[in-house]
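The passage that follows is intended for readers who have already worked through the single-chain material. We present the inputs for a multi-component assembly, then the predicted structure in tokenized form, and finally a short commentary. You are encouraged to pause after the input and sketch how you expect the pieces to fit together before reading on.
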Amino acid sequence: AQSVTQLDSQVPVFEEAPVELRCNYSSSVSVYLFWYVQYPNQGLQLLLKYLSGSTLVKGINGFEAEFNKSQTSFHLRKPSVHISDTAEYFCAVSVSRGIQGAQKLVFGQGTRLTINP
Amino acid sequence: NAGVTQTPKFRVLKTGQSMTLLCAQDMNHEYMYWYRQDPGMGLRLIHYSVGEGTTAKGEVPDGYNVSRLKKQNFLLGLESAAPSQTSVYFCASSTFRDYTIYNEQFFGPGTRLTVL
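Having made your guess, compare it with the prediction:
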């Protein structure tokens, strides 16, 4: 079964500093990869996704992620963070399908990003 | 469009009580999902539905039942609540166009449930 590991449960960063949130997955087959963001007291919002093609994926709010097949990683980066980026970030993979092709997501444990002024 | 909405936003139950969580979507999506979110565990799929009257088990289905009587609604039921079901519950929906592509899941704001 596929799994997703987010290597850091909490990441504190100063404002305008760069940040990297790490994600590794286990799968021997092709995967779809995602990063979701959850702002305080809100639902999940898709930040970016990798389906195929270029391994560098750009998302909303200046975030980008790089798919590395050999290292089975999909790390999220931003060159300069803002206070408004304070949120929980989830990495997810979609490999298996359920009945009638429903795509089932497997989520990592989440990384809480805290931006300090 | 409201997107995906969930009712209620918060609820406190006593052990053994029952309740139903309602998820509604106005995007005419075929697929709907229920997840639970627990600290340090991310989101885990409870049940999902691919259309009216058709549901299937996810990763952690025990203790929950679901129904999809109307395309826009997906209900999650707890017949006899237990403290282990204290969690935040998220509903999601997605359209279906093709088996070969990814159909993005859109999430609701969540329901925070506490079982005492």
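Commentary: The mean pLDDT of chain A is 90. The interface with chain B takes residues 4, 6, 9, 32, 36, 41-46, 49, 51, 90, 92, 94, 97-105, 107-110 of chain A (CB under 8 Å). How closely did your sketch match?
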